[in-house]
From TrEMBL:
It comes from the Eukaryota. It holds the Pfam family MFS_1. GO terms for molecular function: transmembrane transporter activity. Its main location: membrane. This is Retrograde regulation protein 2. Residues 60-475 form the Major facilitator superfamily (MFS) profile domain. GO terms for cellular component: membrane. It is a multi-pass membrane protein. Gene3D superfamilies: MFS general substrate transporter like domains (1.20.1250.20). The chain crosses the membrane at residues 60-86, 98-120, 127-145, 157-178, 190-208, 220-243, 291-312, 332-349, 356-376, 382-403, 415-436, 448-471. Keywords: Membrane, Transmembrane, Transmembrane helix, Transport.
Amino acid sequence: MAPEPISTADSRSSSHEKAHDGHIEELEKGGLSSPDERVVVTELTETEQKATIRKIDLRLLPILGLMYSISLVDRTNLGLAMVAGMETDLGLDVGDRYTVIVMVFFVAYIVFEIPSNLILPKAGAANWLAFLGGSFGAILIGMGFTKSWGAMAVCRALLGIMEGGFLPGCTYLISCWYTRFEVGKRLAGFWILSVLASGFSNIFAYVLTLLKGKQGLNGWSWIFIVEGAITCAVCLLGWFIILDFPSKSGNFLTPVQKKFALDRLDADRGDAVEDEITLRKILHHLKDWKLYIWAFNLMSSTLPGYAYAYFLPIILKQGMGFSTSKSQLMSAPPYILAAFITFASGWLSDRYRIRGPVIAVHQILTAVGMLITAFAKNTGARYFGAFLGIGFLQYCVPAVLTFQANNITSHSKRAVASATCIIGGGVGGIIASVAFMASESPDYHTGIWTTMGISIASCVLIAIMDVYFYFRNKKARAGVVLNEGMTNWYYTP
């Protein structure tokens, strides 16, 4: 059984009930079964309501998507730099040095996830996310001037500290602006920018390597320096654009629009206004076993993602015999397919209000793609495996984040849950750096089978959680229990 909410849940329920006083009506249909049965009473026409939501979309999603896509490129361009001369210049072909500089990033990344999400509401979303982005941009520039593998390891650890709070912060902020069955396609749209950036970053990296010799720097140095400078510029722009939480959105919305935005969130889950984050609440939320299943689900999603990002250029070059330039350019096309699949799956998942089974299908197809990449006998089949694996993989991350966001309430729990979930993603990066051993290049059999086993375990855990949700919702409809301390609120399978 899920732990019962502490007394602060009463304030959420009170806020939820207060919102219904004159603002939200519940239709009598023999018991509520979905948020659609709670109608927000507003002065806005239906057209004006849609225009308000589009206004939020255009202000919030593009800048966050752009900033995160650049941070993801910064994080995953190590494999591209390796084949562009960094391996030789820094002596990364000695022992496990490459594995170390991959792994130290994720150790720091994991440690600073939760602290960062706790700082964000106090510092303000725009201030904190822009600070993090500008910081890891500056660190990336510094990476371009490193002369030893030890200095690169230190830079990678600092990069992990600053990037650790960025994705949970973005997820936290987006989930606070949208209802449960709107957030899926919004997170998918936010993620699509990062998917496309990941693909085209390979081409961009190849172009930057052509600067080899300029100012006495090798091509890999220019990858870090130019991408770091772009990161700093974009994140400075983000400081002027990013919205804060709905209750603190300033003059961006008119009073009527702001009231509509808050009322619809209260109708959906009763947490439009932030509750105070305290140590007691944090410790209470961390007792919820569901948070750790979502973290495992995300770990099993990011593991193959980082594996492809860090090792696909190496597989294409050493395993399939392509040149350095072709291995970089051929890393891009699978991400274009992934963008289409991500959008389609996000739309369908919101449309039919189902999360877990869709994630499981994507994870299995990703694992199959990796098996084909590893064990197929000809180059064409192995490259097809990369298309299959990357194509179905990319939706898994926003899908798991949506699965988690749909099944929690209160801002304090949202802050803790998004951070713990993405800690699982960082663990996936550590496993990728250890399981995909340099000594097994370019086949990486240990990494492939590790990914396969973790993907199967993730699917089993999704099935267990969905069965739990089914019986818990059944009890909630019968009035036996309250889900997340709220009446007429049901988990999303």
